[in-house]
Amino acid sequence: MTSSGRARALVAGYCALLTMIIVGPLAGSGYLLLRDAVSTPRSFLTDSALGVGAAAPRAVPQDAVLAVLSPVIDGGILVKAILIVALWSAGYGAAVLARRFVSASTGAQLVAATLALWNPYVAERLLQGHWSLLAGYAALPWTALAAARIRTATSRTESDDNAVGRRFGAVGSFGGWAALTASFAAAGLTPTGSLLAAVIGLALVGRRAFLPAVVLWILTCAPWLTATALGSGAEPSDPAGVSAFAARAEPWLGTLGSLAGLGGIWNGEAVPASRTTPLALVGTLLLLGIVACGVRAVWALGRDGRALLVIAAVAIVLPALGATNWGLAAGEWLVVHVPGAGLLRDTQKYVALAMPAYVLCAAAACRTVTVAARRILAHDADAAVINGPTAIRDDRAGFRPAAILFVLLLTLPLADLAWGVGGAMRPAHYPAGWQQVVDHIDAPGDVAVLPAGMFRRFPYSGTAPVLDPAPRILPNDVLQTGELRVRGYAVTGEGNRARAVERALLDGAPATELAALGVGWILIERTTPGPLGSSEKTLATAELTFQDEDLALYRVPSPALLDIATPAQRRISAAAHLLWATLLLTGLIAAALRPDRTSARRADRAAAGNRLD
Q1: Number of compact structural domains in the chain
Q2: What pLDDT is stored for residue 481 in this prediction?
Q3: CB-based burial of residue 563 (10 Å sphere; 0-12 exposed, 13-18 middle, 19+ buried)?
């Protein structure tokens, strides 16, 4: 194996080690059940999974992916595998980005990978259960690499007067387009991830390739764009959600400081314990200090570096402004008047856009700090000699202390990210009754669930609330109101029929009234707190088909068959999902077959001249 091959293997292994340190508890059997993260043994391709059910299509295409694959591979294994691959890809992608853009060698690549993996954003999103959003986060460095590769190939083609040269340039960009397709599609596992990748990719791809890249991005958005157009996702979101999901100021930092430190999630309970202590301030100052040391070098890169720095600044400042009074008012106007603007209400999600610039600055800072230290130690005013490639080659080991120091400064203030964010991420095990309920639901009709509300606290899921797993584990559509209670705000969902069913249950209406609303089954989750109202009157008029100490299932006779989605809508949504999956798979395969070896060799040669390890 060559020296560059050994270096890449070292970086890849380091990213794998960091990933397993973070998600180690999930390596055992069981399912991820933590706030918004709900994995189940199997899920089903219901209208809700396709995004054409009664609720907004917030989990497309991820729910459809799990529904299609879980009959073959256990759904819990799928979710954990996607999360592990996403985290590893984020770290390794950051390292490759640093190697290609700033000619960082091994030590600096490890610093870049550490920053991408070990930061408050990753910790908070893990605690919130946003495993699929982290797939979009992981795609950002790869999107930047692919877009820059396309722009470089396009520029080379434009400057070539020879027809053969132009043809060679077009062919040479094929691998870049394949990589961009794969990056857009992978990020598109969630709508927010797709938007994140679009910002990075379209900013770097260049003027000539901009329109084709937009078309490509739109194609990878097909599942959620078609679901929004066909279903209830086009309805305006509740404006109360803007205040509820606004970025939050962490102790001693304020809103802007929290966001600049890659923190500030709206949910104060979904933060590591260290972020509630002065370590939040210490960690943020250290992170920003490291980044600041490399800003000048990244800015000097030209178009790519400057674009990423500007994106990072905007991604921090706009969410901070969005938490002000006038920013909240503007956000409320948007979600009321612009369909789909509800995607923007959790503004802290978009701080992920700062990650590519941050990792480049951190990698470049290794050289900056080392050169400055040499100047001080040598008392040599001749910067040209110190900065020369010969001096660097003659003392490669001099960079190691900076890389080691930066890794320690990034990890120690957030040490409780280790081992499932301080043990908060632990696999859960479903009681056997859930499978019994699945087996007993053998007739049409939607499912109503009690207690009322979207979140549960099961004895087997830990102390944190978790989204009700019923919509993902049952074979029929489950009616949910979508109403959330966040930071004292009641955020209304889009489930109008679900609200009518919930009111009827709590008021003790007869089962015939529920049947008229399309309800064929009632599931009682006995081990979680929540309002039951006068539902025992309703249950007395329904047929008990299964019960144990955890669950009880009732059949509602003769439910009305209310098709929320038409067969044509289901076919269109299925075709959109198939298009997305095709783009993802073909992009990955084509990118693997046409790697950017020329750029890689150029980066390796440049890195050999200023080796940081």
Answers
A1: 2
A2: 86
A3: exposed
Torsion-angle region of 474 (φ positive above 0: left; ψ -120 to 50: alpha; else: beta): beta
Among the residue ranges 554-563, 582-591, 594-603, the one predicted with the least confidence is: 594-603
Placement of tokens 């397993």 in the chain: 20
**Same domain membership, residue 483 and residue 412:** no
For a pLDDT cut of 90, what percent of the chain falls above it?
A: 76
pLDDT in tens, 242-289: 999 999 999 899 999 999 999 999 999 999 999 999 999 999 999 999
Structure pTM? 0.93
User: Do 141 and 107 fall into the same domain?
Assistant: yes
Q: How many other CB atoms are found less than 10 A from the CB of residue 526?
A: 14
Query: Do residue 405 and residue 463 come from a single domain?
Result: no
As given in the structure block, the two tokens for residue 356 are: 């590519």
CA distance 258 to 288: 11
| 270 Cβ contact list (under 8 Å, min separation 6) | 35, 124, 127, 128
- Same domain for 550 and 587: no
Beta-sheet pairing, 37-38 with 446-450:
unpaired
The per-residue pLDDT of the chain, averaged, comes to: 90
pLDDT at residue 9 greater than cutoff 70: yes
User: Quick one: 115 and 37 in the same domain?
Assistant: yes
Identify the domain containing residue 113 by its residue range: 3-424+575-609
Within a domain: 570: no
Q: Rg of the Cα trace of the chain?
A: 26
Does 432 fall in a domain?
Answer: no
